[in-house]
Amino acid sequence: MPRFVVTPWEVKGKVDYDKLIQRFGTQPIDGKLLKRIEKHAKQLHVFLRRGIFFSHRDLNWILDMYENGKKFYLYTGRGPSGHTHLGHLIPWVFTKHLQDVFGAELYFQLTDDEKFLFKRELALQDAIGFTYDNALDVIACGFDPKKTFIFSDLEYAKTLYKMAIQIAKHITFSTARAVFGFTSQSNIGIIFFPAIQAAPCFFPSMLKGENIPCLIPAAIDQDPYWRPSRDVAPKLGFFKPAQIHCKFIPGLGKGGKMSASQPETCIFTTDLPELAAKKIMNAFTGGMGTVREQREKGGNPNICSVYQYFYFLFEDDDEKLRKIYDECKGGERICGDCKEALAKRVKKFLTKHQEKRERAKNIIQKFMLRD
Ligand code: TRP
User: Fold this and answer.
1) For the segment 251-310, what is each residue's pLDDT rounded down to a tens digit?
2) Cα gap 49→34, rounded to integer Å
3) Which of the residues 98, 222, 302, 329 could staple to 218 if both were Cys, CB 3.0 to 4.6 A apart?
4) Rounded to the nearest 5°, which phi and psi values hold at 104?
5) Going by CA atoms, what residue is nearest to atom 14 of ligand 1?
6) Measured in angstroms, how far is the CA atom of residue 289 from the centroid of ligand 1?
7) 310 Cβ contact partners less than 8 Å away, ≥ 6 residues apart
8) 218 C-beta closer than 6 A to ligand 1
9) Measured from the CB, is residue 222 less than 6 Å from ligand 1?
10) Ligand 1 contacts CB of residue 78 (under 6 A)
11) What is the C-alpha to C-alpha distance for residues 30 and 21, in angstroms, rounded to an integer?
12) Using one digit for the tens of pLDDT, what is the confidence trace for 314-361?
C-alpha cells in the first residue's frame, strides 16, 4: 500500500513531495532555475522562495522561448463544486504574479461539467451557480481584464468541443484507464472529460492560428491531466503544455490538505471574518498540554497548522517568519497569542477579499469568454 495517494480526486496521507516528483516523473525546481526566474521577476516570489511551487515540466523551455521573444500564455482552472477556500487561492495568486511579470494572457477554465459528472449529488444548476460564485474569487485576485479570459465549460462548449474531440480521437480507453483509474463502473461522461480539460492547452493556438506556448500553474494533483495532453500535442501540431506545480495548503486540523468536505478546518473566502477567526482559535497546533510546559519545552511549529498558515499565505517576510518559528521552539510564543495574531491577519485579508469580490460583480462580463 502506498503511504500517500495523490490523484485529481483524492489526496490522502502525508504527501512526500520528493517522492511524488519521482512517481509523477516531473522535475524539481532547482537553484539554477530559481535564478533564471529571478532575473525576470526582480525578486523571487515568496511561493518560490519557500518551495511551495516546487516542481515543473518544461519550464526551462518556456523561458528559452520567452527570452527569444516568443510569449507564452497561462492556463489554469477550478472545478466549481462549492465555495472557494484559501487553498484554491495559492495557484491563482501565483498565476497573477506570472501574468504581471511576463505580461501573459490567462485562460481560466471553470469545469462545471466535470463537477456535475463526478459529484453524484450535484445538480447541474448548482454547478453553474458555483461557476459564477468562483469566478468572483478569481477576479478578486486582481487579474488584468484585458488579458484574462474566464470560461465555463458548459457555456463555452461550442469552441471547446471542437478542440476536445480532436484530442479525444488520440486517447484510447486503455490509456485513460491507466492514467485516471477509470473502471467499467465509471460513467462515460468522465471518461471523455480529460479531453475537455486538455482543450485549453491548445485552443488559444487554434483560435489565433499560431502556435503559442502554454504554461499551466496548478496544484500537483492535476498532473495526470497533462500527461495525455502532452502526448497528443505533437500529433495535433501543437507545443506540449509546460507546467509549474504547487503543494497543498494543510487544513486547520491535524494533517491532511484543506478540504471543503471538512468545513470546520477550512477557511472559505465567503466565511464571515469572525467565523474564520473562530476556526483558527480551534486549530490544531504544535503546542504542549499547558502553558507552563510550553514555556519550558517549547512548541513544535513543524506539525502546527497555524504556523503553516503564516508560512503559506500570511507572513511574506522571511525574517519575521523565522522569528515566529524560533520563538515557538524556544517557548516564548504561546499558542493562544499566535492563533490570535493569525486570526487578525486572516480577518483583514477576508474583509478586503470580500470587498473585491463584491466589486467583481460589476466587471465579471469583461472577463467571461463566450463563443
Ligand atoms: N480539474 C480542476 C479541479 O477540479 C479544474 C481545472 C480545469 C484546472 N483546468 C485546470 C486546474 C487547469 C488547474 C489547471 O479543480
Assistant:
1) 999 888 888 889 999 999 999 999 999 999 999 999 999 999 999 999 999 999 999 999
2) 8
3) 222
4) -90, 145
5) 76
6) 41
7) 321, 324, 342
8) yes
9) yes
10) yes
11) 13
12) 999 999 999 999 999 999 999 999 999 999 999 999 999 999 999 999
Q: Which residue has the cell 516570489?
A: 45
C-alpha cell read off for 7? 490523484
The C-alpha cell 488579458 sits at 147
Which domains are delineated in the chain? 5-248 (3.40.50.620), 263-358 (1.10.240.10)
